[in-house]
Sequence to fold (236 residues):
Amino acid sequence: RAAEIAILDTIASDTQRLLLALLPDEEKGQAAEFEPGQYLEILVPGTEARRAYSLANNTNWDGHLEMIIRHRPGGLFSGYLSNAKPGERLWVRGPLGTFTLRENGLRPRWFIGGGTGVVPLISMLRRMADWGEAHPARLYFGVRHSEELFFTEIIEELQQQLPQLQVKLCVSRPKAHEHNYAGNVVETLKGDLAAMTASPDCYICGSARLVQGVTETALDHGVPVAQIYSERFIPA
Fold:
């Protein structure tokens, strides 16, 4: 599908929010339909290469597709975005992926994301808020430095919409004066899993190292493997 850049702004250290608007299509309409947790592939302008990015928003009739892009040295698409402007056209393919919410009654849902790996988890929480779902829920958002945090206002709004949602912003390398953050996300999770009363469904997204560390920690604390869902991000 063809889409135009509607908004492109910086929201954290080396991190941009990209909002695309699908162009009207006589056959497919304009609505953006996908499951929270899915992703799109974007054709990098001037190349045959595609890059995959998770969606942060939810299905909507306006054709809006929201993604968070972390700039990486030599990154093909993030390099393009450095000079991109609203109104430019891109081609997208999707939705793709099976990292989506599972219906398992009212079992607790714990969402653990590292860096931009929190993006599909925000989409899942937005769906829960839109549908008024009552599952006990926790969000662990892990970064190295506080400057890498983003969507904090959106997370606060989600807490208002989902009173049962507990949030821990996990900064592994805080500054000397920063005492309001939890530490390393895996270590923080260990303590909470040790005190849990019911095994949660764990939704994990981030680097291969984070996914492995969180998965091993969950298994070590008795979470059944069937209740662990994950997706690894590969820098590109």
The chain has two domains: 2-96, 109-232.
